Amino acid sequence: MAGERALGLVRELRRASDGHLPPFQTEVLRQALEEMRALYERNQADVSDAKSGRTELIFLIRFRHCCLLRNQRCILAYLYDRLLRIRALRWECGSVLPNTIQFHMSAEEVRCLRDYGEFEIDDGTTILLKKNSQHFLPRWKCEQLIRQGVLEHILV
């Protein structure tokens, strides 16, 4: 069924208790994105046919488009909720998260290679970058520091 995997991500977070960080569902997320890619490709093919006069495909195209939007909303809700939970845990635990929490995080993190000081992200959040500290940041927000050798992108 269209959208079950993406909805499963949201259900997983709902089952988790407040303050608890469930394991990052890499495989389910990958499957949901693959489902979205397949829906998009089928829509592209049907749009070409609909332009050539097969107007009965328009409803199917709209349905798939709605499925794509729903999947997108579910995936973004999943990632945003995890972001808020990780941010709250950082406030509770400090800059170094316990191993039990780090185990449930995504493998894509950034390790600080040298003392840099405070780093302000575009949303106004300030992060203290100390040597050997690990941070969960979107790569695009710290790409320049990675190129400068201040941060290192690590895959666990």
User: Largest sheet, order of strands side by side?
Assistant: 4-1-5
Residue fraction in strands: 5-15%
Largest sheet: 3 strands, antiparallel
Mean pLDDT across the residues is 83
> What's the assembly state of these chains?
single chain
Helix tally? 5
Q: Report the radius of gyration as a whole number of Å.
A: 20 Å
What is the molecular shape?
Answer: elongated
User: Would you list the SSEs in sequence order as H and E?
Assistant: HHHHEEEEHE
The helix content, as a percent range, equals 55-70%
The first-to-last residue Cα distance is: 33 Å
Q: Runs with pLDDT <50, length 5+? A: none
Task: Let me know the number of strands.
Answer: 5
SS-based class: alpha+beta
Question: Would you spell out the secondary-structure blueprint of this structure?
Answer:
Blueprint (H helix, E strand, L loop, with lengths): L3 H12 L10 H26 L6 H36 L5 H4 L5 E5 L4 E4 L5 E4 L4 E2 L3 H10 L2 E5 L1
Antiparallel strand pairs: 1-4, 1-5, 2-3
Helix pairs in contact: 1-2, 1-3, 2-3
Task: Summarize the structure in short.
The protein is an alpha+beta fold. The chain is built from 5 helices and 5 strands; from the N terminus they run ααααββββαβ. The strands form 2 sheets. It has a 3-stranded antiparallel β-sheet, covered by helices on one side. Strands 2-3 form a two-stranded antiparallel sheet.
Task: Please characterize this protein's 3D structure.
This protein has 156 residues and is α+β, with helices and mostly antiparallel strands. It contains five helices and five strands, in the order ααααββββαβ. The strands form two sheets. Strands 4-1-5 form a three-stranded antiparallel sheet, covered by helices on one side. Strands 2-3 form a two-stranded antiparallel sheet. The protein starts with a helix and ends with a strand. The model has no long low-confidence stretch (mean pLDDT 83).
